[in-house]
Amino acid sequence: MLYEELFKLYRSSPEFEGWIPLDSQKQYAVVTLIGAIVCIAIALNSISKSRKASIPDYFKFFIMSIIGSLFLGTATVFLTDSFGVYV
């Protein structure tokens, strides 16, 4: 493919619009990071009691760990999108 064809194809393609604007991704990153810290703290607190942990405690730990991990992954994506563009 020649450069002229590629440039013509680039000009004719529709402009990309992001789902979440780049300017607001920093705020979403902070909120999801706080949510991740809270969920992981709740998960660790559910099994760190001095008494013997029961099945519901392990289930609560499992669910809160999954939610915290999802929040942490989302925060990582938002942080790399918002700060990686400017570096």
Q: Would you tell me the structural class of the helices and strands?
A: mainly alpha
Could you say how many structural domains there are in total? Answer: 1
* SSE sequence, one letter per element: HHH
Distance between the termini: 32 Å
The proportion of residues in beta strands is under 5%
Largest sheet: none
CA-based gyration radius: 21 Å
- Overall mean pLDDT score? 85
Number of helices: 3
- Helix fraction by DSSP (H/I, runs of at least 4): over 70%
Note the overall shape.
Answer: elongated
Low-confidence parts = none
- The overall strand count is 0
Write up what this structure looks like:
This is Dolichyl-diphosphooligosaccharide-protein glycosyltransferase subunit OST5. Component of the oligosaccharyltransferase (OST) complex. Belongs to the OST5 family. The chain has 87 residues and is mainly alpha-helical. The chain has three helices and no strands. α2 (25-47) runs antiparallel to α3 (55-84). The protein has helices spanning 3-12, 25-47, 55-84. The chain has one domain (21-84). The longest helix has 30 residues, at 55-84.
Write a compact overview of the structure shown:
It contains three helices and no strands.
What structural keywords apply?
single chain, 87 residues, mainly alpha, 72% helix, TMEM258/Ost5, Dolichyl-diphosphooligosaccharide-protein glycosyltransferase subunit OST5, transmembrane helix
